[in-house]
């Protein structure tokens, strides 16, 4: 996934390649594992490009989603977040969400192959993808909580 992917997808779908779309896409590329909300993305982008506002960010993310460039994620924290689609991935990676500080980490391996095989066998269901979220306390927060107890 790079700027050429963006240009090709936009053109193929009949959209224009605009400077703003490139800037927003690059900001997503530069913050690959940040799982940004539109508001956070806007903060990053508008620092250097004050002409881009939150309405543009929302509109652009809708287009990116339609072109299968980004995933829209819901971590049950009252906002949507976005990440670039990883085309090398067979299935979507998993997310670890810290309920103390809100940090999101990625688990890159699938680990569900056995379950997928079993489901296919028992339900003859053809699994295309999955979306798995784990809620808990991250290692940093565990350390901090330990210090507090002392
Ligand atoms: Zn899988
Ligand atoms: Zn944490
Ligand atoms: Zn992710």
Provide structural commentary.
The chain contains six helices and five strands, in the order ααααββββαβα. The protein has 150 residues and is of the alpha+beta class. It folds into two domains: 82 residues, Arc Repressor Mutant, subunit A, CATH 1.10.10; 56 residues, Dna Ligase, domain 1. Strands 4-3-5 form a three-stranded mixed beta sheet, with no helix packed on it. Strands 1-2 form a two-stranded antiparallel ribbon. Helix 3 crosses helix 4. The longest helix has 13 residues. The protein is flat, with a radius of gyration of 18 Å. The protein starts with a helix and ends with a helix. The mean pLDDT is 94. One zinc ion (ZN) binds next to loops.
In brief:
With 150 residues, the chain is an alpha+beta fold. It has helices at residues 3-12, 19-30, 38-48, 54-66, 113-123, 139-149; strands at residues 70-74, 80-84, 94-98, 104-107, 133-136. Strands 4-3-5 form a 3-stranded mixed β-sheet, with no helix packed on it. Strands 1-2 form a two-stranded antiparallel sheet.
């Amino acid at each position: 996934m790079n700027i050429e992917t963006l240009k090709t997808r936009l053109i193929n779908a009949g959209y224009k390649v605009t400077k703003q779309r490139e800037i927003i896409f690059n900001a997503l590329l530069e913050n690959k594992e940040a799982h940004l909300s539109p508001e956070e993305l806007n903060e990053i982008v508008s620092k250097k490009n004050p002409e881009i506002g939150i309405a543009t960010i929302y509109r652009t993310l809708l287009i990116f989603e339609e072109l299968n460039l980004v995933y829209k994620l819901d971590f049950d924290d009252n906002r949507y977040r976005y990440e670039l689609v990883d085309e090398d991935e067979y299935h979507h990676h998993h997310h670890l969400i810290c309920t103390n500080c809100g940090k999101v980490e990625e688990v890159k391996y699938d680990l569900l192959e056995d379950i997928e095989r079993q489901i296919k066998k028992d339900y003859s269901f053809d699994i295309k993808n999955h979306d798995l979220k784990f809620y808990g306390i991250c290692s940093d927060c565990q350390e901090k909580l330990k210090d507090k107890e002392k």
